[in-house]
């Protein structure tokens, strides 16, 4: 005991020796008993401390095993198949069950199990962007139900029912039992239902028509649906086209333009960027230019004066009346001859149908040189007669020039013939001499 005490608790030796009573037989026996009791208690406490420490180290190892087992069981647990809405309703159905006898199945020649096998064996290859035939079977909230031959009927939303929609209902866009093409625009949902569209088919067809019109460069009519600061928006085959304000003839793009139909021509067509730009001025100018020719006398309105001449509006087109074409006499001050807003008569002396440009003249309508400066009203009153005389004179001069050119050509032909005959005679003389 003393050796054990000294080994594990060396300080106890000093303490016990100080506290022991004098060495006599009785007191020595009592002190020894007290010392034994104290050492026994401390050894018990030490053993309890060692046991608690060991349990602290071994506890985590014992608790980790159940969690690992739980994780492994979770990973090994098979994934449950998600039921469709029909399967969930079928599982909860508590109503009467109809049993078909084998005799009835034999009489009909078909059974429910055979039907299930046929459905399972059928390959329904419906993919997104496919165009399929379908029949409208009924109207539904926000659209209609379409039978396309799949396991479940497809759904056509109202916003996909037509390219042009203006607050209309699904009933006014499509009829029951109507058969037509539909484009699949979604994958199957949990019930096996697809979503289809008519608008996307019409969108592609509209672009094909627009591209064809641009290639032929033909004019077309379109209705204005809105205006903005830069111009107006027109519907062309259901597509929104922009008309710049500078290409609107004779007016400004205001609210009064909405609902009106104007002739248009394309300026830009870009399907990749979904961009359409149209022009009303180009359509009007080319239509009027087709009816105009050189020498026509037309009415015009002076719109603006420039140092080099005046711009005159002729039937919605802008023509240039150059200062050199106003009068035979020299004009010093243009504002004394013409004023903006003044109505005049002028002759077309040249035109560019591609770019819509017109060159005008009033000096060809003057009865006497300088009449546009001295008496412009006389010029306008006699414009048709003066123009006739002027054109006859121009025609006579043209014929005279053609005759002169023809005489020159004939003279050159005779000279070439004479030259050819002289060469031939010289060849004969050489042959004789040889």
Task: Give average pLDDT, whole number.
Answer: 77
Helix count equals 12
Percent range for β-strand residues: 15-25%
Task: Report strand order across the widest sheet.
Answer: 3-2-1-4-5
Sheet/helix structural class? alpha+beta
Oligomer: single chain
Distance between the termini: 168 Å
Task: Describe the largest sheet.
Answer: 5 strands, antiparallel
Element-by-element helix/strand order:
HHHHHHEEEHEEHEEEEEHEEEEEHHH
Indicate the radius of gyration in whole angstroms: 54 Å
Helix content range of the residues, please?
A: 40-55%
Unreliable runs: 12-28, 56-65
Shape: elongated
- Counting DSSP E segments of at least 2 residues, the number of strands comes to 15
Walk me through the topology.
Layout: H1 2-8, H2 11-19, H3 25-76, H4 85-92, H5 102-108, H6 112-121, E1 131-140, E2 143-147, E3 154-157, H7 170-173, E4 179-184, E5 196-197, H8 199-216, E6 220-227, E7 231-236, E8 239-244, E9 261-270, E10 275-279, H9 280-291, E11 297-306, E12 309-314, E13 317-322, E14 343-352, E15 357-361, H10 371-374, H11 376-381, H12 383-433
Parallel strand pairs: 13-15
Antiparallel strand pairs: 1-2, 1-4, 2-3, 4-5, 6-7, 6-9, 7-8, 9-10, 11-12, 11-14, 12-13, 14-15
Description:
- With 434 residues, this protein is an alpha+beta fold.
- 43% of the residues lie in helices and 23% in strands.
- It is built from twelve helices and 15 strands.
- It has helices at residues 2-8, 11-19, 25-76, 85-92, 102-108, 112-121, 170-173, 199-216, 280-291, 371-374, 376-381, 383-433; strands at residues 131-140, 143-147, 154-157, 179-184, 196-197, 220-227, 231-236, 239-244, 261-270, 275-279, 297-306, 309-314, 317-322, 343-352, 357-361.
- β6 and β7 (231-236) form a beta hairpin.
